[in-house]
Amino acid sequence: MTTDDAVRALRARTALVPDVGVILGTGLGRLADDIRVEASVPYAEIPGFVSSTVETHAGRLLLGTLEGRRIAAMQGRFHAYEGYTLAQVTWPVRVLRALGAETLIVSNACGGMQPLWDPGDLVLLADHLNLLGDNPLVGPNDDAAGPRFPDMSRAYDDGLRALARAVALERGIVLREGVYVAVTGPSLETRGEYRMLRLLGADVVGMSTVPEVIVARQLGMRVLGLSIITDRCLPDALEPASVERIIATARAAEPALAALVRGVLARSN
C-alpha cells in the first residue's frame, strides 16, 4: 500500500487540492464547523488509515475551504497508547502531504506544568521533547519522500508562530509559549514524573503530536503547533484528574483556538 492508493480514494470524492493540513485533537472539533466542506470521508474508507478508538475523535477527514484556504482537516488522530505503531499514527500526515498540503497545523489537549498558566489557556509550541521511546522514521527510508536524518532545529515554523502571536494579540487571546513533551500514556503522570519532566525543560505534557511533527518536517512541511491546557500538573498541589473535566475544559477553549487558527489562515494567504 502506498500514499497513491489513499490519494486516489480521496480524489474520487473531490478534486480539491489542500494547501493546509489540520489535525484536530481532543475536544477541538469546533473548527470543523467553520469549514465549507466539499467531502467528508470516514477513516475506514481511506487506504492505510486505522480506526480512532478515542470517543472524542470523530474519525473523519474533511476536505474543503476555510478563510480562503483549501484545507484537509482530520477529526481525530491516532495514538501509540491505542496500540498503533508510530508508522500507523503518522500515515495520515504522509497522505496529507501527498494530497498537496505544504503546511500542517496540529492541535492537542495537554497538562500544564507551569504554575502561572491556567486550564483553558492556549499554548504556542516552540519546541518539543520526544519521550515516546520510539520514532516514526525508524525502519527503511523512502529517500524520494524525505531525508534519512531530517533536521529538527526549527521543528515549529518561526513565521507561523509570529503570525499566531500577532493574531492572539489583536484578538485578546491568552497565548502562552513553551515546550511540549510527548509521553506514551495512557496513564497520567505521577508527581515524580511531573518533577522530572519540568527538570528536562518541558512546560506542557501530552500523548500525541510529536510523531506527526517529525514526519511533517521530514516531508518538508511548515508546522504550527497549538495546545489547550486542560489541567494543572503541579506535583506539590496535584489533584486527581477527571477525563470529563479535561474534555469540558478543552471544549470551553474551542472558540479561542478556532479564532486563532482562522486568523493565521487568513493572514497566511
SSE layout:
Layout: H1 3-11, E1 20-24, H2 30-34, E2 36-42, E3 60-66, E4 69-75, H3 86-99, E5 103-112, E6 122-130, H4 158-171, E7 175-182, H5 191-199, E8 204-206, H6 210-218, E9 222-232, H7 243-267
Parallel strand pairs: 1-4, 1-5, 5-9, 6-7, 7-8
Antiparallel strand pairs: 2-3, 3-4, 5-8, 6-9
Helix pairs in contact: 1-3, 3-6, 4-7
Biggest β-sheet, characterized? 5 strands, mixed, barrel
Helix content: 25-40%
Q: Uncertain spans, ≥5 residues at pLDDT below 50? A: none
CATH superfamily: Nucleoside phosphorylase domain
* Helix and strand run: HEHEEEHEEHEHEHEH
Q: Biggest sheet: strands side by side, in what order?
A: 5-8-7-6-9
Strand content: 15-25%
How far apart are the termini?
34 Å
Mean pLDDT equals 94
Characterize the overall form.
globular
What is the CATH first-level class name?
Alpha Beta
Q: Total number of β-strand segments? A: 9
Tell me the count of domains.
Answer: 1
CATH fold group = Rossmann fold
Individual helix count = 7
TL;DR?
The chain is of the alpha/beta class. It has helices at residues 3-11, 30-34, 86-99, 158-171, 191-199, 210-218, 243-267; strands at residues 20-24, 36-42, 60-66, 69-75, 103-112, 122-130, 175-182, 204-206, 222-232.
Describe the structure.
By secondary structure, this protein is of the alpha/beta class. The chain has a single domain (3-267), classed as Rossmann fold, CATH 3.40.50. It has helices at residues 3-11, 30-34, 86-99, 158-171, 191-199, 210-218, 243-267, and strands at 20-24, 36-42, 60-66, 69-75, 103-112, 122-130, 175-182, 204-206, 222-232. The protein has a five-stranded mixed beta barrel. The model has no long low-confidence stretch (mean pLDDT 94).
